[in-house]
Write a structure and sequence with these properties.
By secondary structure, the chain is an alpha+beta fold. The protein has helices spanning 2-55, 59-72, 77-89, 93-106, 111-123, 127-140, 145-157, 161-174, 179-191, 195-208, 213-230, 235-255, 260-272, 276-289, 294-306, 310-323, 328-341, 349-367, 371-384, 389-401, 405-418, 424-439, 442-445, 486-498, 520-529, 574-589, 688-691; strands at 466-470, 472-473, 504-506, 516-517, 534-542, 546-555, 561-570, 593-600, 603-606, 619-623, 644-653, 658-664, 676-679. Among the domains are: 211-286, Alpha Horseshoe (Serine Threonine Protein Phosphatase 5, Tetratricopeptide repeat), CATH 1.25.40.10; 292-341, no CATH class; 345-440, Serine Threonine Protein Phosphatase 5, Tetratricopeptide repeat (Alpha Horseshoe); 471-589, Rossmann fold, CATH 3.40.50; 593-691, FlgT, C-terminal domain (Thrombin, subunit H), CATH 2.40.10.410. Helix content is 58%, strand content 11%. The chain has a 6-stranded antiparallel beta barrel. It has a 5-stranded mixed beta sheet with strand order 3-1-5-6-7, sandwiched between helices. Helix 4 runs antiparallel to helix 5, helix 11 (213-230) runs antiparallel to helix 12 and helix 13 (260-272) packs antiparallel against helix 14. The model is unreliable at 1-13, 26-39 and 689-696 (pLDDT under 50).
Length: 697
């Protein structure tokens, strides 16, 4: 009996153990199943969150979210495609390409990955590779609309417009109500300049998909473009287009209340209409969605500046500068505002901060022996902080290195006069030495002071200038810029350079740079009204990496094109470098002319020197006073032979004056003081190369 009971207990214990091990195994399997499903669910939830962030335009948050998803599930191909799409939108095309190629090793026939990779190759200008990828995608699924779009967009970017339109029309045969195809055909006709035809396609797109914010926004931008283009010829038609653009943009916002492009388009339209307060309303709403957008802050600053609210303008320009310190346009606008706001507070901290930036740049260029660029950076530093003796001395030092001793002396005297905390003993010693050197020069023997500004003094040297109007001109058809109304800054910035060239006088409109010019007819009329000899217009192409500026120098008599210049620059200081180069080109294209200041025997003193580009042995024609005009006689051969009185050969060259020996023409000497002198093109053929050299201002 006991044995029987024992056997029964052993059997029961065995059953209990089996049940226990079965339960543990079941629990373990359930744990494995749960842990494998949980990441999948968590990854899917995160992925949906990333999609939402991307749709809201929060690209960096979406990027981090998609990265987390892939970490949870390395095989989640939709997340890889989405991550590549974010990099594509952020213009990091190489990273986007790498992720897509990895995804395609996982799923070689994934159409979405192929289409995305095709678009990335287009962005990388790998057009041949893009065409091969779209061909591969179409071979897998001939009806895939995105692959067909890829082909069409590729053809459009390559300028194969006919083939692109045929592709879109092919899509419309399969999907007759595809509004996007109508939009893209409209885009092609816009690029071809067939604006009326483009408008028809945009309107068709809206009628096919009236609930789409995309179609209404495209039509709004079309109306804005047409309003701008018609503003120079028919104000009534222009206003009707602009108002239609406002209506369509507002409809876009009704569909999508936080549509960023719609808010910006409304701001842009009102900005164009000079409705700065209304423009600010939309830009401020947009700023809530894009608080760290430096270009938007710049635009808001520009609106406040246009309204005369300089304090608010400065706040927004400064915020923008803290986000992008390398934004030269924004920096220049801020500096101009600060100089106006703190006109008497010359020791303002912000003035010093802005000045230090240019001073450091100046020191860099000076140490590299780029004296022309150092000159302009030191000059800007002094403009912003004029009481700083160290910066003033650095500015003066450029003249010393270039052996412009009289200008160096002039600057040293101004430092003593204008600044405090300066070693006057040291400066006075320098001044004494310089005065001794200058007193022995030929200008002193002629009894003139080259930098004297008092025209009533007997030592004063009259100045000869060519009058140039740098117009606030922007091309409605050709300008492509990321900074709105960049022409105002271009005008003021290039004037900053040109003010330093002694043969140029800049003439202004009564309102400074406020008069905006959008047509050549208006440009010519304005140039004539302010009595300039020549005027300039700009065409600009600017993106986030580079800038290309084309300048046309035209005669104010008839608008005839004199010269066309172009400057292209990338990287840091691209605006500074481009405008510096263009200012040199403009200066070198202005006729070198002056007057005879004094005559002694067969020697003459003229008011042109080394800073004008004069060199020894140069030959000048003498033209009777009143018979020469820089624009009328840009071509010297147009001067009447009767007006030419003789010639001068330069023997000594000073900073702003030169001495030469003259020969009169004919039997009688008719040469007098204040007769004009101009470079003799025939005698100076050997010096043509020198004319193109960059001269120290």
């Amino acid at each position: 009996m006991e044995r029987k009971v024992g056997r029964i207990n052993q059997k029961g214990q065995s059953n209990i153990m089996k049940k226990f091990f079965f339960s543990v195994t079941l629990l373990f399997l359930f744990f494995l199943l749960f842990t494998s499903i949980y990441p999948q669910n968590n990854a899917l939830e995160l992925f949906q969150s990333g999609i939402k962030q991307e749709q809201q335009g929060d690209l960096y948050s979406a990027l981090f979210t998609y990265q987390k998803v892939i970490k949870l599930n390395p095989y989640f191909i939709d997340a890889k495609i989405a991550l590549s799409r974010i990099y594509y939108k952020l213009k990091d095309y190489k990273k986007s390409e790498k992720i897509l190629k990895e995804a395609l090793t996982q799923e070689p026939k994934n159409i979405d990955a192929l289409n995305m990779l095709g678009n990335v190759e287009i962005a990388l200008n790998n057009f041949k590779e893009a065409e091969e990828i779209f061909t591969r995608a179409v071979s897998i699924d001939p009806t895939n609309i995105e692959s067909q779009y890829g082909f069409a967009n590729l053809y459009r970017l390559e300028g194969r417009y006919k083939e692109a339109i045929e592709k879109y029309q092919y899509i419309l045969k399969i999907y007759p109500n595809d509004a996007r195809s109508y939009i893209y055909i409209g885009d092609i006709y816009m690029e071809l300049g067939k604006f009326t035809k483009a408008g028809g396609f945009y309107r068709n797109a809206v009628s096919l998909d009236s609930h789409s914010s995309f179609t209404h926004l495209k039509l709004a931008k079309y109306y804005y473009k047409m309003g701008r283009l018609n503003s120079t010829t028919n104000k009534k038609i222009a206003d009707s287009y602009l108002n239609a653009g406002i209506d369509e943009a507002n409809t876009t916002l009704e569909i999508d209340p936080e549509n960023r492009d719609a808010l910006e388009t409304l701001g842009d339209i009102y900005l164009f209409k000079k409705g700065f307060t209304e423009a600010l309303n939309y830009y401020q709403k947009l700023l809530k969605l894009k608080p760290d957008d430096n270009l938007l802050l710049y635009t808001i600053g520009y609106c406040y500046e246009s309204l005369g609210m300089l304090d608010k303008s400065a706040i927004n320009y400064y915020k923008a500068l803290t986000i992008r310190r390398d934004d030269e346009v924004n920096r220049f606008r801020l500096e101009e505002i600060i100089r106006k706001l703190y006109k008497t507070d010359l020791k303002n901290k912000l003035r010093k901060e802005l000045s230090d930036y240019h001073y450091d740049k100046g020191k860099y260029f000076f140490n590299k022996n780029y004296l022309e660029k150092a000159f302009f950076q030191f000059k800007r530093a002094v403009q912003l902080e004029p009481l700083n003796p160290t910066k003033r001395l650095s500015f003066a030092e450029v003249f010393k290195i270039e052996k412009y001793y009289e200008r160096y002396l002039y600057e040293l005297k101004n430092i003593i006069r204008d600044t405090l905390d300066v070693n006057t003993q040291d400066l006075n010693d320098r001044i004494e030495i310089l005065e001794n050197i200058i007193s022995k020069g030929f200008p002193a023997r002629w009894g003139v002071s080259q930098y004297l500004e008092d025209s009533s003094s007997p030592y004063y040297v009259p100045k000869s200038h060519t009058k140039i109007a740098i117009l606030n001109y922007f091309s409605l058809k050709n300008d492509k810029t990321i900074h709105k109304y960049l022409s105002k800054t271009l005008k003021e910035y290039i004037e900053y350079f040109l003010y330093s060239y002694p043969k140029i006088e800049l003439v202004q409109t009564s309102d400074g740079s406020q008069t905006e010019i959008t047509s050549q007819d208006k440009a010519l009329k304005l140039a004539q009204s302010i009595k300039s000899d020549f005027y300039t217009t700009f065409v600009v192409n600017e993106d986030e990496e580079s800038i290309k500026i084309e300048v046309e120098l035209r005669s104010s008599i008839n608008g005839e094109l004199i010269k066309r210049f172009s400057a292209y620059s990338t990287g840091n200081d691209r605006l500074f470098n481009s405008l510096f180069s263009l200012s040199v080109d403009i200066n070198n294209s202005i006729p070198l002319h002056g007057i005879i200041v004094k005559i002694e025997g067969d020697r003459v003193l003229i008011n042109l020197g080394r800073r004008h580009g004069v060199k020894e042995k140069m030959s000048f024609l003498i033209v009777r006073k009143g018979d020469y005009s820089p624009n009328r006689n840009y071509d010297v051969s147009t001067i009447s032979d009767k007006s030419i009185l003789g010639s001068i050969t330069i023997t000594k060259v000073g900073e702003l004056v030169s001495e030469g020996v003259y020969k009169y023409k004919g039997i009688f000497n008719r040469v007098n003081e204040y007769d004009s002198v101009l470079l003799n093109p025939g005698k100076n053929a050997k010096n043509n190369k020198n004319k193109n050299e960059k001269k120290q201002p």
